[in-house]
Each structure stands twice: as C-alpha cells, then as structure tokens.
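no rush on this but wanted to send it before i forget. theres a chain ive been looking at and ive put its sequence and its fold in token form underneath. i want to understand how the tokens follow from the sequence so walk me through it. thanks a lot i owe you, the record is right below:
>
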Amino acid sequence: MITRRDVTVAVIGGFLALGVMKVSGEKPPVLGSTAFDWNSVSAKATPVGSVRQFMRTPTATLDELELHVTTLNPGEASHAPHTHPNEELIIVKEGAVEALVRGEWVRLGPGSVIFNATNELHGLRSVGTVPAVYHVINWRALGTVPPRP
C-alpha cells in the first residue's frame, strides 16, 4: 500500500532531480502520466498570498507544461498586467477575481475559466472579501517559443 509519506517523498525527489538537471544543463525528462495529491504539494508564501507549484516540465507534445495554484489575498493583484508568448488557462476555484481581457476588467467567480492568448495584455486581481484561489495552466508548444532563461 502506498502511503501519503511515499507520495510526498516521491514528489520531493522528483523536484530535486529536476533542479539538479537544470543546474547541470540537462533537459528534464518528458512527463508521463502522473497524479499529484493536493496535500503533497506544499504552499509557499508570497507577498500577496501563496503558490503551490505542481509541475513545470516538458511533455511528449510540449516544450513546457506548467501548473500552479495561486491563493491571492483580497485586494491584491498577482502582478501588473503583462504579456508573454505562451498561452494559459486560469480556472477560478474560490473567491472573486477581476481579469483583464481585451482591455476590460471582467468580474468572475468560482468555476469561471480565463484563456490568455499569446502576447495579449492580461492581468488578474482578487476583488472579494476572502482570498481568491485559482489554477494556472500554461504551455509552450514544441518549437514555437524560445526557452525561458
């Protein structure tokens, strides 16, 4: 029987291995089918809330697949509106947010989905009375975007 401790040790070991490969200049292995237990990925405090980093690695069809969950304190923005070449989906889990979409701030709640297209200005801020929690999934297709530093 696999225990939560076994899963935690495996996840930590995987992240350590990815860190060693990045330092050594080796490419990380392609991600295969994987399951992540919410409780095995610890939240790290940020100045505006916290973040849980689940993955940031290549897959068979992507140069990079990244998934993290952000908790954003009421009245805070994750960062200033910006653009980037990768595309991303944001799925609101809890709280209320305003998303900058095509130049307009749109108010959204739990279950809402935001798609940020390549190189389009976008932003997100928590506008409710409780923290906003949202999943961020972003990707870079094979050969379409230069690697991040």
The longest helix spans residues 4-24.
